[in-house]
Amino acid sequence: MFGGGTLNAPLVNYYEHGTFLTLNHAHTSLFGAFGLLAIGLIYFCLRHAAAEQSRFSEKLGLRAFWLYNAGLVLWIALNFFPVGWPQLNAVYDRGLAYARSLEFYDTTVLWQWLRFVGDVPFAIAALLMAFDFVLKLAPLFPAVVNRMSRQHGEKRSP
Question: Single GO cellular component annotation (predicted)?
């Protein structure tokens, strides 16, 4: 809502491309909407793929989901908006070249470092999710290896 809705106004859209408001829109729409949807689809497939092999738990996946969302909200609140709106104002006042220059970014150093606060839960979520994928896929590997070795053995025998 705050990303795409504000960027659609022609006057804003013309000036804001290449600013942190574009980063806000890209991160929240690509990962927040489509990325989490894709991860949900992966979990749906894992549930059915591993159903016969082990008991399925959503605990780690849900924790990763909420950590991803917390990271996104922290990025928006502590980095994208606090840099993006003054940057858009700088584009209006002094032009895009200034707003993309080190001179402008030197005025937002604190907000640049606060990006890390959102990076931490996002990275923890990625590690949790990867660990959860390995846990859910591990029981499938022996079955796949056995099936492949049987098929491979059947092809070689006369």
Answer: membrane
pTM for the whole structure: 0.78
Read off the amino acid at residue 100: R
Give the amino acid at 67.
L
Could you please report the per-residue DSSP string of 20-81?
Answer: HHHHHHHHIIIIIIIIHHHHHHHHHHHHHHSTTTS----HHHHHHHHHHHHHHHHHIIIIIH
Structural domain count of the chain:
1
**How far is the C-alpha of 155 from the C-alpha of 158, rounded, in Å?**
8
- Is the Cβ–Cβ distance between 28 and 3 less than 8 Å? yes
* CA dihedral sign, ordered 95, 96, 99, 101: negative
Phi and psi at 40, nearest 5°, equal -60, -40
Domain ranges, residue 130: 4-156
Structure-token pair, residue 67: 């950590």
Question: Using one digit for the tens of pLDDT, what is the confidence trace for 72-81?
Answer: 999 999 999 9
